[in-house]
Write a structure and sequence with these properties.
Elements: H1 2-50, H2 53-66, H3 71-83, H4 87-99, H5 105-117, H6 121-129, H7 138-150, H8 154-166, H9 172-185, H10 188-201, H11 206-218, H12 231-247, H13 251-264, H14 270-279
Helix pairs in contact: 1-3, 2-3, 3-4, 4-5, 5-6, 5-7, 6-7, 7-8, 7-9, 8-9, 9-10, 9-11, 10-11, 11-12, 12-13, 13-14
Amino acid sequence: MRKVWIAPLCLAGLSLLGACGESMHAQTARAIDSVAAIDQENMAEMMLAVSDPREAVDYFTAQSQQFPDRVIFRRGLGKSLMRAGQAEASIPVWQQVLEHPEATLDDRIDTAEAYIRANQWPQAEAMLNSVPPTHETYGRYRLEAMVADSRQQWDRADSFYEIAAGLTPTPAGVLNNWGFSKLTRGDYRGAERLFTDALRQDGSLFTAKNNLVLARAAQRNYELPLIEMTQTERAELLHTMALAAIRQGDVQTGRALLQDAIATHPQHFEAAANALAALQ
């Protein structure tokens, strides 16, 4: 009798072990999938952070085709296309991202930026208007300021630039944009102050250095500001100031600045040399 009872127990044990084996297999498969997903996300972030834009476009294009349901790769493709200077080509990709169930409000903001870079301002404004006002981010207000600039709504632009600058630990870029907005309006002193503030935040931002020189030259101040600069940067800034002086009719000053730029540059400064030859 004992053997009769043992057989069913053994069968039950084997059945239980089989069920446990199936459960363990499923758990292992899920764990592997989770690790693979994390690895894919890490790889996507790395490609966006350090990769050459063209390499990133190729990577995200391939991944989007292999994993069409994963929004992370479509999103990465859209960002990579914009980094590669192909904003218009990124717009259909961003539209696909927005149709995905995992799309976020930040995706709408990135889409608005793509429209701005493609010079499609009405579409950009409409996209920003679709973002709830409670979604207050640096990226959103930076773009809102640019749209307001395009409509020459100066008070509105100033308000948005100020908010954006307060929402980021690295405001140099938005301060430079704000300064350029002031420069285009003819508020040269205001522009000079903002470019100086941008350089206090990031002394390596050459666009802010160049814009600062333009703001000073517009006030007929033809002395370089007291900021850190390399010898090559000094030559290029002298060249910028020279051209601004010539455009304002201060030709003799412009000629002297061009000569200084040529003498300062550690190599042959062809652009300045050509400008000086044209004057003579």
